[in-house]
Specification:
By secondary structure, the chain is mainly β. The chain contains two helices and twelve strands, in the order H-H-E-E-E-E-E-E-E-E-E-E-E-E. Strands 1, 2, 3, 4, 5, 6, 7, 10, 11 and 12 form a ten-stranded antiparallel β-sheet that branches. Strands 8-9 form a two-stranded antiparallel ribbon. The protein starts with a helix and ends with a strand.
């Protein structure tokens, strides 16, 4: 009886330790795509048109990354995010704060005054959109998309 309980506990532990992506993102995960990067309405030429892949992040349960040439790896932690669905698109508004190791999306010297991260999923793409303001600087927007082939 103890062996069965230990075995059941091991299976339970292994299954709960595995992070799970939402189904609509899991369908896109691991597939090769084309990356699009837009900063404040302008295409980032060195990044746009390059290869990308949507993957589960190793840095948090239910987190997704766009593996690409982007300077900062586009990452969204979906734990606690609100979810809505409309016209075949699923939108997540995350609880992210814009903080990063060594500072924030504004760097380590300029204070971050507002931040919003949205993840938009369609049948063939995933977009991570960041809107933020830094003290003394206008509002910024970074839109990074991986469209699978």
């Amino acid at each position: 009886m103890k062996a069965l309980s230990l075995m059941a506990l091991t299976v339970l532990t292994l299954s709960t330790a595995e992070a799970k992506l939402p189904a609509e993102i899991a369908k896109l995960s691991g597939r090769l795509g084309t990356f699009t990067s837009i900063y404040n309405g302008k295409s980032v030429a060195a990044e746009t048109g390059t290869d990308c892949k949507i993957e589960e992040s190793q840095y948090g349960e239910g987190s997704v990354v766009i593996d690409s040439v982007s300077y900062f790896t586009p990452t969204a932690h979906l734990d606690g995010a609100s979810r809505s669905e409309k016209n075949g698109e699923v939108t997540y508004i995350t609880t992210a704060t814009g903080k990063r190791p060594g500072g924030s999306v504004c760097g380590d010297m300029i204070p971050l005054t507002s931040y919003k991260q949205t993840v938009i999923v369609t049948k063939n793409s995933l977009t991570i959109k960041q809107k933020f303001s830094c003290a003394l600087v206008d509002r910024n927007e970074i839109i990074e998309t991986c469209t699978v082939k």
